[in-house]
Amino acid sequence: MTETRHILVLGASYAGLGSAHYFLKHVYPQLPSDPKISYKAILVDPSSKWYQRHASPRAAASPELVPADQVFLDIEPGFKQYGEVFCFVQGKASSWDPEGRKVVVQRADGAEQTIAYHALILATGTKTYSPLFSLQGTAHTDIQAALRTLHGQLTTAKSIVIAGGGATGVEVAGELGETLNGAAGWFARRPSSIETEITLITNSSTLLPGLRPDIATQAETYLNRVGVEVRYSTKVSSTHELPDGRTKIVLHDNEQVEVDIYIPTMGAIPMSEYVPDHLKDEKGYVKQNNQTLRVDAAGPRVYAIGDVGTYSNNRIVDIFNSVPVMETNLQRDLLAAHTDVNARPVGQDRLYVGSKSEDLIMIPIGQSKGVGVVYGWKVPSWFVWLIKGRDYMVPKGKANIDGSNWAKEMPWKVKEL
């Protein structure tokens, strides 16, 4: 009788999709051919569609700029190429028993399913405070509803406050500014007519903390040209939805502002409710070895990849750099444990080395401008438009679904000690 060993991947965003495809393309083919042991990848996510969250700022501004059918892509068709060695389960992990090596999944059809695993990859990611910018651990219909609500509000909105001076806040402000107010003409600092007052507030003394001051200054200039004002050193203490649908914002100095639309873009919350408390840090991120990406305290062959883990800086580039590292160590672990599940690999592990804040960042600001850095070099606005701003890389999203962006293995050579 054949024993089927499950490689269980929780989460189907960038990290989960990448992990599943990389395993099926490059790790699975190198596992021993054994009539007594087979392997199967199981991918679990509450949504049947993947949301291209990198395009969410433009999708929030207008459904004409980025139609829903372009940012919500079906997950399962991209995995049909692997046949029966792959299975997709639409559901949400409700609990995890590390000692029993099993996860309980609440399926979308209401049934409860317990999945035993041989290896477990935690890739459930984080959610944003606003449902506009990420799936919230629920079906994609929830975020579609949030987008429709916003689009309806934008038709009459005269005042908008966006909280958060990071990349998402700057991008959202730029997209809304140009969509609603247009852009300044030649030699003008602001649009000739402001249809909607848009204010971006940040608790910091600068935009885009972590980037050099001249880039932050340029970002504010581009925001001004689409009618966005920036308020620094300002923190939101609380918000209250009013009966008429507007929002009252209470600031740190007790100043109160009423606006038609309030959009929070600061911070993220790890989706780790199913993870036992002793395996999480004080913020809810999964504690792991930040170099091997294993969750050592959870037993053998358990890994955290993407935003849910402590190694991540919550950037997509971190995911693409870490998937090959995790997969190499997964392969080493699986080969060592093929005949003895308690065996550990001998020799060196592949280690993850984090990227710097200015290694690669592209921030479109409106439909024609932007700021960015590539390996420490400041790039011109037209370059940001060319790489990301013209279409927010939406056409390239299918490569995440079908795994073609992982078509080539990223090999690793063991360094001599």
Structure report:
The structure is a single chain. By secondary structure, the chain is an alpha/beta fold. It has 2 domains: 3-128 and 268-354, 3-Layer(bba) Sandwich (FAD/NAD(P)-binding domain); 155-265, FAD/NAD(P)-binding domain, CATH 3.50.50. Helix content is 24%, strand content 25%. Helix 1 packs parallel to helix 7 (316-336). The two termini are 43 Å apart.
Task: Summarize the entry for a quick read.
With 417 residues, this protein is an alpha/beta fold. The protein has helices at 14-27, 56-61, 68-71, 140-154, 167-181, 213-224, 316-336, 381-389, 398-402, and strands at residues 3-10, 37-45, 49-51, 72-74, 86-97, 102-107, 112-116, 119-122, 126-127, 159-163, 197-201, 228-231, 236-241, 247-251, 256-259, 261-264, 269-270, 302-304, 360-365, 369-374, 377-379.
Helix and strand layout, with pairings?
Blueprint lengths: L2 E8 L3 H14 L9 E9 L3 E3 L4 H6 L6 H4 E3 L11 E12 L4 E6 L4 E5 L2 E4 L3 E2 L12 H15 L4 E5 L3 H15 L15 E5 L11 H12 L3 E4 L4 E6 L5 E5 L4 E4 L1 E4 L4 E2 L31 E3 L11 H21 L23 E6 L3 E6 L2 E3 L1 H9 L8 H5 L15
Parallel strand pairs: 1-2, 1-8, 2-5, 8-18, 10-11, 10-16, 11-12
Antiparallel strand pairs: 3-4, 5-6, 6-7, 9-17, 13-14, 14-15, 19-20, 20-21
Helix pairs in contact: 1-7
